[in-house]
Amino acid sequence: MVSTDRPRRSDATKEAIRAAARERFAADGYERATIRAIAADAGIDPAMVMRYFGNKEKLFAAAAEFDLRLPDLTDVPVDEIGARLARHVLDRWDGDETLMALLRAAVTNQAAAERMREIFAAQLGPAVLAIAPGDVSTRAGLVATQVLGLVLTRYVLRLPPVVAMDRDVLVTWLGPILQHYLTGEPKHIKSV
Amino acid sequence: MVSTDRPRRSDATKEAIRAAARERFAADGYERATIRAIAADAGIDPAMVMRYFGNKEKLFAAAAEFDLRLPDLTDVPVDEIGARLARHVLDRWDGDETLMALLRAAVTNQAAAERMREIFAAQLGPAVLAIAPGDVSTRAGLVATQVLGLVLTRYVLRLPPVVAMDRDVLVTWLGPILQHYLTGEPKHIKSV
DNA sequence: GTCTATAATTCGATAGAC
DNA sequence: GTCTATCGAATTATAGAC
Fold it and tell me: Do A99 and A174 lie in a common domain?
């Protein structure tokens, strides 16, 4: 038992590489992030990156390991689920650059796009299933459009009006919308 | 007068390059789209591309010339504006790959992102101004999050649930949301 | 384990013949 | 106007010394 899980020799290096890779992929996207730059950030030789991860694609796969960490929404009052979800997305994005790396890369890299699809299918789908009536797939898809649209415009494209919006203002606007996508019916919406 | 606007000698070549560039930038993004490939698609020599457009950045700028062609929404019944806008977005995106090129490139290329910001500021802003009360900037920003989120998930990431959704179903769901962003008040929304 | 040296490509861009 | 030839730089990836 202990032998398979022993004190770790210098996997610290491996973790340092992964951290540096996350930053570079997030900042520059898949193609512009170079192994050389990642190695330099990690303070080691580029050859080490190849030794530990084989090639660039595998390095990205290791760096883009990601968990949405969706909160358990089943015990949240029904009419607060949307706001809770909106707040979680903003928190999650501010605290972890992995999703930014994944999104940036997914736009031009096929493997990254596939991973993105997997993550949303495996993590958002079940979460919606627990609380939503009717067509779960459609509801999960609609939530994805609004959530990723927010992330894209605020963190990637940095559209000024979206960047300028206060966190709480965003939650106030988007909460009811996500709520509607999760539990409402199409067309049956009243805006006053 | 005629001399400045004469029959055009072989600007057909120039237009062929621009068309090929649009396709490549849309399919591969800025970095992966190569001048060599674009030239091959256009059936001419790579050196011609440089001669006509100077460098890769200027070529992209020429290929990403884009007009949202937002319809005049002032004469549309107020409660139909959202649906009309949703339908227009789907139409516009299906018929022109320029916006796809712009979006794909904007995610990893600074100049493309800046152009994206300009387009939304110059075209969406005024359109919203004509019909929306209160904080126009916020409303335009919210509309951008949902519209670009739809485009990202449906055309770029190709999330299965979003791809599977019928055009009319999407309009039915998104119409009221865009309507709400344009004319409603935060929190004052009722989903039944 | 870590790094040096370099192979093998690929790309943007230029010079110049025709 | 069009194309050939090529430069110079940058990249991933490998081989092998220490």
Answer: yes
pLDDT, residue A175, reads 98
Write the DSSP string, B4-59. GG---SSHHHHHHHHHHHHHHHHHHHHHH--HHHHHHHHTS-HHHHHHHHSSHHHH
CATH number at A21 reads 1.10.10.60
The C-alpha atoms of residue A72 and residue A182 are separated, in whole angstroms, by 14
pLDDT tens sequence across B120-170: 999 999 999 999 999 999 999 999 999 999 999 999 999 999 999 999 999
Are B43 and B86 contained in the same domain? no
Which strand D bases fall within 7 angstroms of a protein CB? 1-5, 10-16
Interatomic CA distance for residues B191 and A192, integer angstroms: 11
Domain that holds residue B37: 9-63
Q: Does A191 contact B169 at a Cβ distance shorter than 8 Å?
A: no
What is the mean pLDDT of the segment spanning A151-159? 96
Residue A189 in any domain: the answer is no
pLDDT at residue B8 is higher than 90: no
A89 and A34 in a common domain = no
Q: How many domains does chain B have?
A: 2
Interface of B with A in 28-87 (CB under 8 A): 28-29, 31-32
* Residue % of chain A over a pLDDT of 90: 82
Number of H helices, E strands in chain A: 11, 1
